[in-house]
Structure formats: structure tokens, C-alpha cells
Design brief:
single chain; Molybdopterin molybdenumtransferase; MoeA-like; elongated; binds ligand LQZAQKY5; MoeA_C_domain_IV; Molybdopterin biosynthesis moeA protein, domain 3; 4 domains; 6-stranded mixed beta sheet; binds molybdate ion; alpha/beta; transferase; Molybdenum Cofactor Biosythetic Enzyme, Chain A; Molybdopterin biosynthesis moea protein, domain 2; binds magnesium ion; molybdenum
Length: 427
């Protein structure tokens, strides 16, 4: 008799994985290698930006009071006492009737409180200019601290370093950046039908696509994939490989053999590893056979062999663990809403997660399946921007209904997307 499994609700299954402790660790990397990594400490301004009052224009720094009453018929003449470009400073103090030629980015000389753009100045000689209008104190000055003040919190730890964060790290002198250590994720493909990618097709065989897909998913989530190869459906070989892998990696993922068939060894491997099974059936489609075990604090994800089920299992269960290991406060896929672009008439007792493409029409997002909506499909993954969440137990869904979606290409994430997912309504 085949083993009868009790399906666990998606949110409970995700929660049970998140209940397993994982302590994030950090390392330092050179700034130029930090793009795409995750900050391991809050970034706080340790000085004002800009750190001195400076000129936003090429022009002349003046004492605003000197320009009082100036107009077209009555220009004010000033004596040029110096010239400064960005990076140089004017020593001394500018006195009444004096001005300093100043370039964009240069520090405002002592005594000056306004800048006149070159275009508004008449230059009589290197030593004398005139201006035809008056200026107020503070005109055309970039003030110390106007961008940010010393002590301000700028970027929270757990944030993925984007080019803007890189600019801040450089601004505040981070030649070495504290980043989260990437968790090492072992990937083991099981199945006697699997060929290496370079091998020609043979009857009954397929190339191992899941391992490479998951390596890319691990990278997208911020982890470090460790490809451990393919194994035939052989319990002893698979168990040995899993034992060995758990010594080398933080987290282990297998693909294939998670169901109830003759060669589906994941349950036996977990038994041999003396692992605690968190669940071996989830009320979702695809990915219902997703099995997760814990052994000595290490997680073992037995994902389905079916490519789309494997993909979805990873995004729902592995991704949040990796993001949390990277200090994220929002480790899950970001949830938002969109309008269904087509009918889903078939009722299903399980929550469906449809790989879908996201487009905009009439000012809102519309989602449609990205291809063949079957667990064994490999082609529908490439065009998937989101997973549409269709809770089970309804009569089906109609085009035009508003549905929850989980975004696949996104850095922000969500804290916990699994509350308030209700069957759709018409928008
Ligand atoms: N009697 C039942 N049969 C099945 C059930 C069930 O409940 N009762 N569940 C079905 C569901 S749902 C799924 S999903 C699959 C899960 O299969 P397994 O995790 O056991 O995976 P395999 O049987 O090893 O392979 C399934 C499928 O995927 C292909 N595959 C495997 N590995 C790879 C890989 N690395 N790259 C690409 N494709 C891969 C494999 O050739 C099979 O076609 O079970 C259903 N059956
Ligand atoms: O686990 Mo299967 O993917 O439900 O289709
Ligand atoms: Mg199977």
C-alpha cells in the first residue's frame, strides 16, 4: 500500500521551515565586489553631506549685501580677489566690495553668502566684474548637511546593495563593506533518467535542468550554489551523497524522488539521516510533494523532480530561509495584486501557484499564465515574472478578477505574505 500523506496548508508549511533557527554571519568584501551583496550592518552617516557649504554653479561668490540696490541702470562693481576650482579653498576672508571666482563644487569662501552664475556677470577684466541685480543671503548655495546630516540612518542592514547604496558606501569611506556571508546551498539531482547537460539525448532520458535552474535561483536569492551532480535512483548512493553534502554546505536541496513511487527515495533518505520531517505534502499545486526535513539544525529540502514544481517549491520554502540568512526583515516574495487576464474554470482543492507574466493595461497590472500550466512543464518558467496565488476550494476564477501575486524579480520582499489571501473578487 502506498503511504498516505496528510497535506499541510502552505502558510503552515512555510512557517515550519522559518521556525528552524539560522544565524546570519558576515564578512568584509572590497567595495568594488560588493554590488548585489547584502549589507550586514546599518549604514549611518558619520559626517554631513555635503561636509561644507559649496557652490552649485560656476560663477562668483559674493557678499549678498554688496549687491543691494543693483539694477540694469545701476550695476554694482566688485573686485575679484581670487579664483577657486573644486578641491581648492580660498584662504582668508572676502571683504566688502570683493568677490572670488568660484567653480561648481568649491567651498564657499569665508565672508561670502551667495553665488552669482557666470552668465549673469559682466567681466570687465580679470580683476573687475559687475552685476545688474541684487542677491539675498543664501542664494545659490549648497549647504553643509542639506543632503544628509551626520548621524542619519541611511540604509538598513539586510538591504541588497544597488548602485545608489554603492555610492553611499563610497561617500562614507567603506573601502571594505560588511556583507552577509552567502549561505552555501548544496544541490543534488536524483533520477536514473538524468543526462549531463552536454550529453546527447537517448531514449527515455532527459537532461538535468533542475539543478542549474536551482543554482540560478540560489544566486538570485543571494546564496552560493554548490552543484553536487546527478545520482541514479539508488538509495544507498543518494543517502551517502546527502550525508557527505551536509558536512560541506549549510543547506541541502535535492530534486526528484519526492513522491510515492517505487524509486522515490527522499522519505527513506530522511529516515537514514535520522532527520525530522517537517512536512511531506503541501496543499499546493505545483509542488504538493515538497518534503522538508531537519537534521542537527540543518535543513534538507526534497523538492519535486517536476521542473515547475521544483521551481515553485524553491521560491516558497528555500528563498525565505536564504533571505533571512542575509539579515532580511522581509524574506518572502513580495505580494501585490493584479487582474486576471484569463479564466481559470477548473476547481482545485489545493492553492494554485500559477507561473505568470505581468503586463500593464489601462493603468493596472494584468497577469496571464506564462505557458503550459503543468507541474512537469519546463518552458513556462522562463517567462514567469510572478506567481499568481489562487486559493483552493473555490469554483474557479474568471478573467477580470483581482488576485494576489508574488513577484519573482524583486529585492524588497515581504514580511509575511500568507495572511489575508482570500479567494478573488471582481475589480
Ligand atoms: N501516484 C502518484 N504519483 C504521483 C504523485 C502522487 O501523489 N501519486 N504526485 C505527482 C506529483 S504532484 C509530482 S510533482 C511528481 C513528483 O515527482 P518526484 O518528486 O518523485 O520526482 P521524479 O518522479 O523523480 O520526477 C518527476 C518528473 O520530473 C523529471 N525530473 C526529475 N529530475 C529532473 C531534473 N533534475 N531536471 C529535469 N527534470 C527532472 C522526471 O524525469 C519526471 O518526469 O510525482 C507525481 N506522481
Ligand atoms: O507536487 Mo506536484 O507539483 O503538485 O504537481
Ligand atoms: Mg517520482
Amino acid at each position: 500500500m502506498v503511504e498516505k500523506r496528510k497535506p499541510m496548508a502552505v502558510r503552515e508549511a512555510v512557517q515550519s521551515v522559518m521556525n528552524v533557527e539560522y544565524t546570519p554571519r558576515q564578512e568584509y568584501v572590497p567595495l568594488e565586489n560588493s554590488y548585489g551583496r547584502v549589507l550586514a550592518e546599518d549604514l549611518v552617516a558619520d559626517h554631513d553631506v555635503p561636509s561644507f557649504d559649496r557652490s552649485p554653479y560656476d560663477g562668483f561668490a559674493i557678499r549678498a549685501e554688496d549687491s543691494a540696490g543693483a539694477n540694469r541702470n545701476n550695476p554694482v562693481h566688485l573686485h575679484v580677489v581670487g579664483e577657486i576650482g573644486a578641491g581648492t579653498v580660498f584662504d582668508g576672508e572676502v571683504k566688502p566690495g570683493q568677490t572670488v571666482r568660484i567653480m561648481t563644487g568649491a567651498k564657499i569662501p569665508a565672508g561670502c553668502d551667495a553665488v552669482v552664475m557666470l552668465e549673469l556677470v559682466h567681466e570687465h577684466s580679470d580683476e573687475e566684474i559687475s552685476i545688474k541685480r541684487s542677491f539675498s543671503p543664501n542664494d545659490n548655495i549648497s549647504f553643509q548637511g542639506e543632503d544628509t546630516k551626520k548621524g542619519s540612518s541611511l540604509v538598513a542592514k539586510g538591504t541588497t546593495i544597488n548602485p545608489g547604496v554603492t555610492a553611499l558606501l563610497a561617500t562614507f569611506g567603506y573601502a571594505e563593506v560588511p556583507v552577509a556571508l552567502r549561505p552555501r546551498v548544496g544541490i543534488l539531482a536524483t533520477g536514473s533518467e538524468l543526462l549531463e547537460v552536454h550529453e546527447p539525448l537517448k531514449p527515455g532520458k532527459i537532461r538535468n535542468s533542475n539543478a542549474y535552474m536551482m543554482a540560478a535561483q540560489v544566486e538570485r536569492a543571494g546564496g552560493e550554489p554548490v552543484l553536487l551532480g546527478n545520482l541514479p535512483d539508488d538509495l544507498e548512493a543518494c543517502t551517502e551523497a546527502a550525508k557527505d553534502a551536509l558536512k560541506k554546505v549549510d543547506i541541502l536541496i535535492t530534486t526528484g524522488g519526492a513522491s510515492v513511487g517505487d524509486y522515490d527515495y527522499v522519505p527513506n533518505i530522511l529516515r537514514e539521516l535520522k532527520a525530522t520531517t517537517l512536512f511531506n505534502k503541501v496543499a499546493m499545486r505545483p509542488g504538493s510533494v515538497t518534503t522538508v526535513g531537519e537534521t542537527n539544525g540543518q535543513l534538507f529540502f526534497g523538492l519535486s523532480g517536476n521542473p515547475s514544481a521544483c521551481f515553485v517549491g524553491f521560491e516558497l520554502f528555500v528563498r525565505p530561509i536564504l533571505r533571512r540568512a542575509l539579515f532580511s526583515q522581509k524574506p518572502h516574495l513580495r505580494k501585490t495584486k493584479a487582474v486576471l487576464g484569463m479564466d481559470f474554470p477548473k476547481p482545485n482543492p489545493f492553492t494554485r501557484l500559477v507561473r505568470a507574466s505581468l503586463d500593464d493595461a489601462d493603468g493596472h497590472f494584468v497577469v496571464e499564465p506564462a505557458g503550459l500550466d503543468k507541474s512537469g512543464s519546463v518552458t513556462s518558467i522562463a517567462g514567469a515574472d510572478v506567481l499568481i496565488v489562487l486559493p483552493g476550494g473555490t469554483r474557479g476564477y474568471e478573467k477580470g478578477m483581482s488576485v494576489d501575486i508574488l513577484m519573482l524579480e524583486d529585492h524588497k520582499g515581504s514580511e509575511w505574505p500568507w495572511e489575508n489571501i482570500v479567494a478573488s473578487y471582481r475589480s
